[in-house]
Amino acid sequence: MKIYVDGHVHTCHAVNAVVAQPRSMNEVSEMRGTQMYSSEMIKENWTTLQPKLRVVWPNLTEQDVQAINGDGELLVTKVREKYGFNRDDIFSKLAPYLPVQPAKAIR
Q1: What angle do CA 39, 98, 91 make, to 5 degrees?
Q2: Which CATH class is domain 37-99?
Q3: What's the CA gap between 21 and 25, in Å, rounded?
Q4: How far apart are the C-alpha atoms of 67 and 95, rounded to whole Å?
Q5: pLDDT digits (tens, 9 = 90+) for 61-101
């Protein structure tokens, strides 16, 4: 059985307990039961996101937005250059404008 306590997944076997360490950010997301946003989601939802970018990050220029043109990696690069945010912070700011995906259960 796996249980989630204070940001960690614990696997319990009778007397022994083993802490499962995540191998990737997607696995961390699965452990927490949250959606992990990706560059592909930026591309798929570009028409919705494009008008929101300069509202969320006013220091992005119209030329920046045009250059990004749905490229999630370029978006991360431009926002990081102008604001110093990390990838998780950037996608967190975009989350309200992206469709909600069902969370995966821990088995």
Answers
A1: 50
A2: mainly alpha
A3: 11
A4: 21
A5: 999 999 999 999 999 999 999 999 999 999 899 989 888 75
Mean pLDDT lowest among 31-35, 47-51, 57-61, 79-83: 31-35
Q: Is 79 exposed, middle or buried (CB count within 10 Å of its CB: 0-12, 13-18, 19+)?
A: buried
**Token digits of residue 82:** 């102008």
pTM: 0.60
User: Where exactly does CATH 1.10.1470 map onto the chain?
Assistant: 37-99
CA distance 66 to 73: 14
Closest Cα partner for 95 from 49, 40, 50, 28? 49
Provide the CA 28 distance to its chain's centre, in angstroms: 11
Half-sphere exposure for 70 (CA within 13 Å, toward CB):
8
Question: What is the distance between the alpha carbons of residues 51 and 46, in angstroms, rounded to a whole number?
Answer: 9
Alpha-carbon span 106 to 28, nearest angstrom: 11
